[in-house]
Amino acid sequence: MLTDNIGIDLLAATPFSHDISLPGVGKIAETKQLSPSLVVQYYFGHAESKLRPYIGGGVNFTNFYDNEFTNDLDGALSDLSMGNSWGLAAQVGIDYQVNKNWLVNASIWYAQISTEVKFNLGGSPTTIETDIDPWVYMVSVGYAF
């Protein structure tokens, strides 16, 4: 918390894996992503309140890596790449103060993630515009020092 009503939150998690598919063909590749989101939050009510809802807004950065073909269609696919993504992030949540130091939190996050999947198909450059845009649901326990 920066003040009684303003906080900062960083959502970071272990990498996620995604399949990349083509219509009529199915899965052709897979990738991993690491996508931290940083938001500034506004907490409603007083710092001493047991129940404090909040909203937040900020930015998401997504790094795609370990992009690899799982089916290269007998050599027809090559040169797989995916660009990193910058997008908006939003959050709503609520804190319940159990006692002076411990709290329980529930929140919902949204992250805007878009990328271009690029590869050569039979020697022709091909690009697929991809939106992931996940919703993340969390329940956590916190300790204030």
Characterise the protein shown here:
A hairpin with a 2-residue loop joins strand 9 (114-121) and strand 10 (124-131). The chain has strands at 6-11, 16-22, 26-34, 37-43, 51-69, 77-82, 85-97, 102-111, 114-121, 124-131, 135-143. 0% of the residues lie in helices and 70% in strands. The chain has no helices and 11 strands. With 145 residues, it is an all-beta fold.
Keywords summarizing the entry:
mainly beta; eight-stranded antiparallel sheet; Porin; OMPW; 0% helix; single chain; 145 residues
Break the fold down into its secondary structure elements and pairings.
Elements: E1 6-11, E2 16-22, E3 26-34, E4 37-43, E5 51-69, E6 77-82, E7 85-97, E8 102-111, E9 114-121, E10 124-131, E11 135-143
Antiparallel strand pairs: 1-4, 2-3, 3-5, 4-5, 5-7, 6-9, 7-8, 8-11, 9-10
